[in-house]
Every structure is written in structure tokens, then in C-alpha cells.
From TrEMBL:
Entry-linked InterPro entries: BACK, BTB/POZ_dom, SKP1/BTB/POZ_sf
Any Pfam family the entry gives: BACK
Domain (BTB) ranges: 18-91
Listed PANTHER family: LD33804P
Protein name in the entry: BTB domain-containing protein
Length: 297
């Protein structure tokens, strides 16, 4: 991997001796980037082929290359990475349009994806706790059939699991997207107690519906129905049968109107006598193994 140096940064900013013009994007959303063919060839197998005499078009001594399917903002990040070997994960995460998905797709096409993923893995500790959650949310937005880079998906999932294991912070829990929350609570390695997952899920649902009071005792049928609809897709992943009877009757039972009737009845039966047959699948307990692998800020 290239190290960031002033020499390569200056090369990236200097157009005097560039011999490649790359037109990125289409129509009004297009931009011409100037670069050095030797650096592009060295850093990318894609450009090594694209700038060959069999493919590239030249006007005089200048290679003319068009890439309409990449956003100019994304290619600017890619080009900087080609020259310096660095990117700003923080800037990408701050982007209102969540450019990480586009960046990984573009890097994959240009043959830099493995290197970019390695960079993200090495430098993820530079992000704040909030930005780690944003990164996790961004990756969980990508449909499974479009995940051509499962290694980074799996890395971020594992990282975030361990991150939450070290930081039992309900404020961070509230920042999780729907998909991110499901990916955490369905995971056997998510080391949060089941009753804490339930409590945080209720807080998360209230945050999703800010007009609803945080005082659950004040809820009427309308509020109950809204929260029930908000959390229903998460219910199958909560291991209610692993919650102690005391915690269940203190924390869950007062809000049992949020649960499906069948589940509610079978939880009560199981508490009365675990030997009574029930049809609801009892999920196995989570695996509580403390791992110390990451250094967090």
C-alpha cells in the first residue's frame, strides 16, 4: 500500500505534466480529471489495460478516457487514493448521500477494492463511535444480492458487535437503522442481555416516533399500536424465553400488548412450567465471550 507523502499529493494536484484526461460522469454531472498514465498503470490493473494501445484513444500525446458510470465526487476520492493511498473515512461518512456504497463499487470496478477494504480495516479506529454506527448503517443498506464485497460487510458486522460489547450505550443503540438493528440482535455473538435489548428497542421505537411520550404508562391504544407496528419485525429475534421471570414481569409484561398474542401466551406458559410443549421456536442463548481485539476512541 502507498504511504501518503507530499510528493504524491503534489503530483495529484499538478496538471502540467499529466498525459491522461479522464471524463467522469455524463451530461451536466460530468468532470474531466487529469492524471499520469504511469501512476494509473502501476496502481490499477484496470487502468493498465485501459491505457494500453489496444484500448485507449489518444489525441497527440494525451490519452482520452471516458467513464460515464462513476460519479465525479466518487472518482475524486478514488483518484486521491490512487496517488496517496489514503481516504477520509470521516468525510465519506458525513456525506448526506452515503457515498460508501458507490465508492466500494467504483473501487471494485477499477481494481482497487481489496486495497480499499484493507485501508478501511486498518483505519476504522480513526472514526468516532457515532461514525462507526453510521458506517454500519451504510453497509447494511446494501441489498444482499449486491454485496460483492462480503469481506468488508462481515468485518464491519464483527467490529460493531464487539464495539457494542464494550460500549453499552443506549444513545448509540438509538442511532441504528432498521437493518442494522436486525443484523445485531439476530446474531448469537451480540453480547447484550435480552432484557437490555428489549428496553433499548422500546427506546429506539419511541425515538422513531418522537410524538409519543417516553412514559409508557401514559400510552393509549393509538400509541401502543404505533409502537407495536414499529417493533414487530424485531420481535422474532428477541430471545424472550431467555429472560428471567422477574425481569419479564417487571419490564416486558407491562408492555405485553406490544407482543403477538400467541407469543405472549406461550411465554407465560413457559414461565409457569418449562416442560409444557409450545409451538414457538425457542432461540438458543447468546454466546457471552468477551473479546479484546479492538482499541476504541
Amino acid at each position: 500500500m502507498f504511504n501518503k507523502t507530499n510528493t504524491f499529493q503534489n503530483l495529484n494536484n499538478c496538471a502540467d505534466d499529466c498525459d491522461v484526461n479522464i471524463q467522469i460522469g455524463e451530461g451536466s454531472n460530468s468532470k474531466i480529471f487529469k492524471a499520469h498514465s504511469n501512476i494509473l498503470r502501476i496502481r490499477s490493473t484496470y487502468f493498465n489495460t485501459a491505457l494500453s494501445s489496444y484500448w485507449a484513444k489518444k489525441e497527440g500525446n494525451i490519452f482520452i478516457f471516458k467513464k460515464p458510470n462513476i460519479n465525479p465526487d466518487i472518482f475524486r476520492i478514488i483518484l486521491n487514493f490512487i496517488y496517496t493511498g489514503t481516504i477520509s473515512l470521516l468525510d465519506i461518512n458525513r456525506d448526506k448521500d452515503n457515498k460508501l456504497n458507490e465508492l466500494l463499487i467504483a473501487a471494485d470496478e477499477i481494481g482497487l477494492n481489496d486495497e480499499l477494504i484493507d485501508y478501511i480495516q486498518i483505519h476504522i479506529n480513526e472514526l468516532s463511535k457515532e461514525n462507526i454506527i453510521l458506517l454500519f448503517n451504510t453497509l447494511n443498506m446494501i441489498p444482499c444480492n449486491q454485496r460483492n464485497y462480503n469481506n468488508i460487510i462481515n468485518f464491519i458486522i464483527e467490529y460493531t458487535l464487539e464495539f457494542f460489547n464494550d460500549y453499552d450505550d443506549s444513545n448509540l443503540f438509538l442511532k441504528l437503522s432498521d437493518n442494522s438493528l436486525i443484523s445485531l440482535i439476530k446474531n448469537d455473538d451480540f453480547q447484550m442481555k435480552e432484557i437490555d435489548i428489549w428496553n433499548n428497542l422500546i427506546k429506539w421505537a419511541i425515538a422513531k416516533n418522537p410524538t409519543i411520550s417516553s412514559h409508557t404508562s401514559n400510552w393509549k391504544s393509538k400509541e401502543i399500536e404505533i409502537i407495536k407496528n414499529t417493533i414487530q419485525k424485531f420481535i422474532p429475534y428477541i430471545r424472550f424465553f431467555q429472560i428471567s421471570p422477574d425481569d419479564y414481569y417487571e419490564k416486558v409484561h407491562p408492555l405485553s400488548a406490544l407482543l403477538p398474542n400467541k407469543l405472549k401466551k406461550e411465554i407465560n406458559l413457559h414461565i409457569i412450567d418449562p416442560r409444557i410443549p409450545i409451538s414457538t421456536k425457542i432461540l438458543r442463548p447468546r454466546i457471552f465471550i468477551k473479546k479484546q481485539r479492538w482499541n476504541y476512541y
